[in-house]
Amino acid sequence: MTENTPQNPYEPQPGGPTPPEGGPAQPPSGGATPPPAGASPSPYDGPAQQPPAGPTQPPAYGGPTQPPAYGGPGGTYGTQPSGPFSVGEALSFGWRRFTGNWLFWVLFTLLTFVIGLVFSSGSFGDYQEINEAAMRGDISTSAAAGVSTGSSLLQLIGSLITAVLSALGINAALREAGGEKATWGTLFKVNSYGMIILAALLLFAASIVGAVLCGIGLIAVAIFSVFTYHNVVDRNLNAWEAFTGSFRLVGKNFGAVFLLELALLGINILGLIPCLLGLLVTVPLSTLALAFAFRRLTGGPVAA
């Protein structure tokens, strides 16, 4: 970001009074008293212009009404050009930031997996119990429906918690993109948890509608809504604006974003091979690469 250069007080400013030709400038009517005869002439023509009180700062990233979700990155940033990016740039950036803070990212990814597994295993156990009881004839239809409803509610809660964790991971990745090293202390510093939950519910509803449309809509939602949480966390948008804004952003830069998403899909498939352990690397790498892509496309600060 650049600061406005204060005006030179020794140069006449546009719109100011112009001294007449052939003599010193005359003070305006009612103005200051001219110097007495014999006094040294003024070293400049025209009234002195006072410089501004201080340099003005440009609006914060995201607009004056949309401050970023953090207090500013701690490192050098803004040296990367904004605009389209290549897949290699995004992956290289993600790898550098991951290796520079690998312990945090591995532990956070492991925490996310464990929480998701806890809620999924509980639902799976309930369904298995229903099937076994139904085979023995020890459970009625109403009881089975009650257990199924409880399991679905538990699964929904688990999905929301996982969504919040995903948004927190995006928050950490955006901090890394700005040059700040993500920590457990800054992980939870987001603008609005309520808006993250609303965005998660909106994405869930859009996925259901997309699944009804022969699965094509579900693929479209997965591709075009990839920056929804980024808009909520980084630009402080509401859930609907973040969702539709992601569609517009991807639509304007479809080629670069789609190629990056394909590359990340292939990387995460490879991460499944070594007993899922590779996901501890590929998942945070993907999160960091997408944060880099978002900042480049929106003109946000990107670390050198």
Distance between the termini: 14 Å
Oligomer: single chain
Work out the helicity level: 55-70%
Radius of gyration: 29 Å
Count of helices?
10
Overall description:
The chain has 10 helices and no strands. It is mainly alpha-helical and 304 residues long.
Top keywords for this entry?
59% helix, mainly alpha, 304 residues, disordered N terminus, 0% strand, globular
Helices, strands, pairings?
Blueprint: H1 87-100, H2 102-136, H3 141-177, H4 184-187, H5 193-212, H6 216-224, H7 228-235, H8 239-252, H9 254-272, H10 279-298
What is the gist of this entry?
This protein is an all-alpha fold. It has helices at residues 87-100, 102-136, 141-177, 184-187, 193-212, 216-224, 228-235, 239-252, 254-272, 279-298.
